Amino acid sequence: MAKTSTQSDVAQRAGVSTATVSRVLNGSNLVRDDVRKRVEEAMAELNYIPDESARSLATRKSRTLGAIIPTLNNAIFAVGINALEQAARERGYTLVISISNYDPDSELMLVRQMLERGVDGLMLVGNHHHDEVYRLLNASAVRHVCGWSHNNNAPSPNIGFDNARAMHAVVDHLVDLGHQKIGVLAGICQNNDRATLRLDGTRQRLEHHGLDLPKQSIIQIAYSIRAARAALPDLLKSDVSAVICGNDVIAYGAVFAAQDAGLRISENLAITGFDNLSLSKELRPSITTVNVPAADMGSTIANYLVDAIESNQPVASCKFETDLLVRETTIGSTHKMI
Amino acid sequence: MAKTSTQSDVAQRAGVSTATVSRVLNGSNLVRDDVRKRVEEAMAELNYIPDESARSLATRKSRTLGAIIPTLNNAIFAVGINALEQAARERGYTLVISISNYDPDSELMLVRQMLERGVDGLMLVGNHHHDEVYRLLNASAVRHVCGWSHNNNAPSPNIGFDNARAMHAVVDHLVDLGHQKIGVLAGICQNNDRATLRLDGTRQRLEHHGLDLPKQSIIQIAYSIRAARAALPDLLKSDVSAVICGNDVIAYGAVFAAQDAGLRISENLAITGFDNLSLSKELRPSITTVNVPAADMGSTIANYLVDAIESNQPVASCKFETDLLVRETTIGSTHKMI
DNA sequence: AATAGCAATGTAAGCGCATACAATTCTTGC
DNA sequence: GCAAGAATTGTATGCGCTTACATTGCTATT
Questions:
Q1: Domain annotation covers residue A2
Q2: Which nucleotide is nearest to A7 (CA to C1')?
């Protein structure tokens, strides 16, 4: 950390007390204009930079928000965090991030670090966390919220969407189109409530339509094109006419694999994604997918956290709606596909 | 911030002084084992969580790294930051990020905030910054490094690659294939030295081959598929046989636009990208592109920054090599394209 | 058995800031 | 021109921690 001038240097230079300097710094309105001006000049001349840690120690607030996410190598988290940071800063808060790599034990360690660091508010992703995480958070009085999921009986405030419910529209759409044998390329469900709920929601809705989802019609894979591309042939063995993918990246892999196999997409095989990445609209065939308001969610998380911190109340929950975007991978197109 | 137990609570409970508690906390080896154990028990019983801001204030170190990036909505930055965070944490440092939205004035404000916050090290992207940024940084003695670019006469240490030089291989490849009229879909160069250098490098290398790059063969656009798709037709008016794109996302847009126009990619129109996003290999046609070691760069930035902080020396620079990956958008393929 | 020498622990002084409270200066009404 | 009150500024304490230095307890050497 740099050796810089301190408040008392400024005070001395401006011929006032440190209290007055502090008041100028914090925009108190009980400083006479000429004095304020003098202090501000002294600050500028000395290149004075206030010390946040001293300030945090004195005020017991850090004006810092923490976010612990599984990865940034996923566009949806990256976009959400981008929006979260912007909104946080507009409110005068700084963002600290950490990556858990989808590991609950790592996440616990990170939560502890965030608490040490003294964040005023903390965001986690999803509702599946180590018990100790909940214990720590509840004991600490640091505001927290779980994003990307919404569940009325979640143990923590939620700002997100209903991952299970989101799949209903997808299933309904495919069933409407006459599909009876439907397979799933799910994300890896272990320790991931979003992936789990999407699979559960799919199964539930299929049952609601009187359709079965046999074990061999479900494959769990990493969120990567390569993994999806490799997995599709296995799924095709169970003779499905439609594949529901855990997200858009998986859907891309499925599309490429289907093309490799010489299938006509939507005619021979319908494919759906999740997230509505910007590519999904542009690709040919364009991807039928579920739109998720990642940026909105991110900024809402920041704003609700700050609201909660400043009003000294628990974070308000917020449910976002998702919507199905029907595109070429399910309803065919005029474009020729291999 | 939470009201938690303090070091002196622990000291009292364990029947020792706060100094001993502090020593246990910092792993000093001059505490007797039985005393250490007693203190650790007291910590656990009281759910003691050390206060980082007090610690920072006392030690004059924050064990925090800052990163100011243009956006997270770009996979390459997201991946780099992901790696940076992981490496930083392995070294015991926390990452604070801020988004500048490619705006130098915002960036200046963020640098100032980072300095207030007391980061021990700071990463910026590229070598184009507000003069005041350099002044502040040099005055502050906070270690800093500029990533994603490498230039021997840069005013700051650099950990990145030579954006201009990287284009030489692209141009050489296209010229080798016989292309004479080459167009460029560049990123927006204003305030972006990476985009500028890629364009400059392209022009230089074309000249080296005796080829001209007329104004109407260059279009600057945002890094988005949509913008690229919209811009390609304009470029085609100048009758180019190859298009060099500022990054892979732009290349995707160009590919889609070419397909829309009924062109045979690589035969009628060659296209190149930059970044080697994971999609680029999978897409048909696959994208000829420049591979950038984003994750390596991110972790190197973290490690070099921490090295510099802990050794009290300037950050060492590091030059990464890029390499051309020749794929279907330039050398044709057995796949049929529309 | 006395003591030098070291190991383990305690004491106390800040780190830079905010803020309660005290002291001072300025208004205003008369 | 004076007092009461408002406006402004100063004084001094403490936030929770680290650490230089002082002190105590122990071991080993003679």
A1: no
A2: C16
Q: What is the pLDDT of residue A163?
A: 97
Q: A23 with A30: CB under 8 angstroms?
A: yes
Question: Between chains, do A94 and B96 touch, taking CB under 8 Å as contact?
Answer: yes
pLDDT at A141: 80
Same domain, A300 and A194: no
**Same-domain check for residues A145 and A170:** no
| Closest Cα in chain B to A82 | B72
Give the residue from B135, B255, B282 with the most A CB atoms within 10 Å of its CB, the best one to mutate: B282
Same domain, B236 and B316: no
**SS3 (DSSP) at B272:** strand
Query: Measured from the CB, is B23 under 7 Å from any atom of strand C?
Result: yes
**Residues in chain A closer than 8 A to B225 (CB atoms):** 278-279, 282
In a shared domain, residues A108 and A82: yes
- Considering its fold, how many domains does chain B have in total? 3
Q: Determine, yes or no, domain membership for B56.
A: no
Residue whose entry in the numeric block shows the structure tokens 């009187």 = A210
Instruction: Kindly report the backbone phi and psi dihedral angles of residue A195, in degrees, each rounded to the nearest multiple of 5, phi listed first.
Output: -60, -45
Q: For B155, which DSSP code?
A: S
Q: What is the residue type of B302?
A: A
User: Would you say the C-beta of A139 is within 7 Å of strand D?
Assistant: no
Q: Is the CB of B1 under 7 A from strand C?
A: no
Residue A45 belongs to domain with CATH number: 1.10.260.40
Letter string b/e over residues B185-213, b meaning 16 or more CB atoms within 10 A of that residue's CB: bbbebebbbbbbbbbebbbbbbeeeebeb
**CA separation for the pair B338, B330 (Å, rounded):** 16
**Pair A143, A259 in one domain:** no
∠ CA(B213), CA(B214), CA(B216), 5° rounding?
125
Q: Could you count the other beta carbons within 10 Å of the beta carbon of residue A30? A: 6
Q: Domain check: are B206 and B299 in the same one?
A: no
Does the structure show a pLDDT above 90 at B150? yes
User: Distance, in angstroms, between A210 CA and closest chain B CA?
Assistant: 37
**Which amino acid would we find at residue A84?**
L
Comparing CA positions, the residue from B169, B180, B204, B174 lying closest to residue B271 is: B174
pLDDT (0 to 100) of residue B141: 80
**Within 10 Å of residue A87's Cβ, how many Cβ atoms?**
22
Closest-CA residue to A169 (of A327, A295, A326, A282): A326
Within 8 A of A2 by CB-CB distance, chain B residues are 115, 139-142
A337 within a domain of the structure (yes/no): no
Report the CATH number that the domain containing residue B114 is assigned in CATH: 3.40.50.2300
- Identity of the residue in B71, B79, B89 whose CB atom sits nearest the CB atom of A73: B79
In a domain, B1, yes or no: no
Which residue segment(s) compose the domain that A228 sits in?
Answer: 163-291+325-331
Q: Do B245 and B310 have their domain in common?
A: no
pLDDT at position B21: 94
Contact in structure between B330 and B173 (CB atoms under 8 Å): yes
Q: What pLDDT, on the 0 to 100 scale, is given for residue B310? A: 92
CA of A191, C1' of D29: distance in angstroms? 63
Element (H, E) at A234: helix A225-236
State yes or no: pLDDT of B1 exceeds 70.
Answer: no
CA distance linking residue B199 with residue A140, whole number of Å: 53
Quote the pLDDT of residue B333: 60
